[in-house]
Amino acid sequence: MPQMQQNEKPVRPEQKQNQQPGIESAMVPAPESQPRASSAVPKLKNKVALITGGDSGIGRAVALAFAKEGAKLAICYLSEESDANDTLEELNSMDCDAIKLSGDIGDEKVCRELVKKVIATYGRIDILVNNAAEQHPQENFEDISAEQLERTFRTNLFSMFFLTQAALPHLEKGAAIINTTSVTAYRGSSSLVDYSATKGAIVSFTRSLAHALVKRGIRVNAVAPGPIWTPLIPSTFDADKVATFGSDVPLGRAGEPNEVAPSYVFLASHADSSYITGQVLHPNGGEIING
């Protein structure tokens, strides 16, 4: 009888086959090979999702993709009322039960209030998408002020701590947390040092939180988009840079938000990604970042 290593726990009956590649019918228990969910059943049917930055860009695309899969939605935004109204109208046209909530997620009290409103409306949260972010290019590192540094970290990183802490009492086994990081977390950006630093921290946050919550049955993953055509781009860069945005990746163009959204659907679906936690998906136009 083989000896188990210390801390190694038996998870299958002891068994051995003497010929490769082996016979599946002889395995006990048999491997589960049938699809985990029917394609006829929406992947997120009746799940409640809270999405920050859900008014536009990647957040809007994720909201629409979740709605298509049967989720109920709360989209959070800062102050872009017209975008939020457009997104809500589109969700309603899909017969999606959805609400919009505004507030500065860099403020811990606001995060608690957002969660309270979602619970008051739906009674639960099944999926938390920490997506909202801001960036402020500085060609000279010395020009990053203390105010900018704090603001970027509050919006991009502190908010994830605040919202997760507020939502956690309402997340049950099978829930999913999905954080938006960035390709800049892996390759850096000379003009977005503070932004890239937050995105690197989000990767570590995701991996550590996944370990912290694994025994509760809550999966934590992230998505690291490359150059994606969102309102953040023309509101960040000058016209010349916008004109060539994304042209330096192998696919030669910026991605669209709806090319990123399926990554979030996959990570939100327990049927599809039940064996994935602490990981990062990379819809980035072909850039190899080894992360």
Automatic annotation (TrEMBL):
Keywords: Oxidoreductase. One of its GO terms (molecular function) is oxidoreductase activity, acting on CH-OH group of donors. Signal peptide: none annotated. It comes from the Bacteria. The keyword Secreted does not apply. Residues 1-42 are annotated as: Disordered. InterPro entries: KR_dom, NAD(P)-bd_dom_sf, Sc_DH/Rdtase_CS, SDR_fam. Residues 47-232 form the Ketoreductase domain. PANTHER family: NADPH-DEPENDENT ALDEHYDE REDUCTASE 1, CHLOROPLASTIC, NADPH-DEPENDENT ALDEHYDE REDUCTASE-LIKE PROTEIN, CHLOROPLASTIC-RELATED. Belongs to the short-chain dehydrogenases/reductases (SDR) family. This is SDR family oxidoreductase.
